Model the fold of this input.
Amino acid sequence: MKNSKLLYRFMMALGIIFLTTFFVVAYWYSMNIGILKMQVFEQYMGYWFCFFVVGGAVLLIVGVLRTDIPSIKKFRGYIAISIPVIVLFLLFSASMYAFNQSFFNSFAVRSEITQVTVLSTSPLILSLNVKPITDYDSRIDGALIMDSNNNHVAEISQPEYIVSENWQGLAMAVLPAGSEIALTLDFNTTLPSGNYLVRLYVWEGNHGSSHFTIP
Done:
């Protein structure tokens, strides 16, 4: 009997851990926190959902219904009913948030710009060192320049057919997983002195950005 009590308490705690883990990782992903290598989360999200959310909810419900903790036992019927409602509400909210993020082209960041060097100001030519923060190859479609007022002042996109180990198609460049690359970008324009931001992009995702100054 004592072992059964411990088992149900363990199931309840494990269910809470499973649900918390999934939603914390999903939040990190949606907020573009690039310290995580998110390929596994992206490719197998359905499996993670079944394992952590469905499995966590089942464990939590069973644990709550069978636990003998007085403060929970008194209201366990209400708790058991509220768990799936809360999970469904969270999933609905996450789905709507993901839809809005997708609509505005705001995806997880795939790279970071580790160094920006101004090679020329007339025309503006930049040298960028770009480092991946994912564990898979990704393409770079173009780059744009924003001024200090967040206005779009220059852009470059030179698509060509590129073949890499894990990707092929039109792109400006391909960023291999685990390999830092150097890009030389000629924006074919002259900008006044000031502070700017250069941002790399791909149509279904984001790459890194970095500030630089034109003297």
In short: Residues 32-40, 99-106 have pLDDT under 50 and may be disordered. Residues 2-103 form one domain. Helices lie at 2-30, 39-43, 45-66, 70-73, 76-103. Residues 158 and 172 are 5 Å apart (CA to CA).
